[in-house]
Write a structure and sequence with these properties.
- By secondary structure, the protein is mostly helical.
- It has 4 helices and no strands.
- The protein is flat.
- The termini are far apart.
- The relative contact order is 0.13.
Length: about 100
């Protein structure tokens, strides 16, 4: 798979850029939207950073695979949050569980 991704840089770049944008939006984005020029600047910087990651991917580092693991972990966390909410077990952040006697 690594060799195939190295031989297809456009596919690799699209996968890397999509992963970077997804991770940014789910982890680092503030609650309110940025002004349009700042939004464009942020996406341009992500596109430039994705080019650097593409060079590392082509140089045989598993960038896409690592991002896939990060996204899978984010999805597992989201699934756990939905399950806790469904079961009614959601505790506010920083609150310790009650001790059982």
């Amino acid at each position: 798979m690594q060799a195939w991704l190295s031989n297809h840089p456009l596919v690799s770049y699209v996968l890397i850029l999509g992963s970077v944008i997804y991770i940014f939006n789910k982890v680092f984005r503030a609650q309110r939207r940025l002004p349009i020029l700042k939004e464009i600047l942020v996406h341009l910087m992500m596109a430039l950073g994705s080019l650097v990651l593409l060079v590392l991917q082509i140089d045989k580092l598993p960038i896409i695979q690592c991002m896939a693991v990060a996204i899978a972990m984010m999805l597992m966390l989201r699934g756990r949050q939905i399950y806790d909410k469904w079961k009614g077990n959601a505790k506010p952040a920083g609150q310790k569980p009650e001790a059982k006697s």
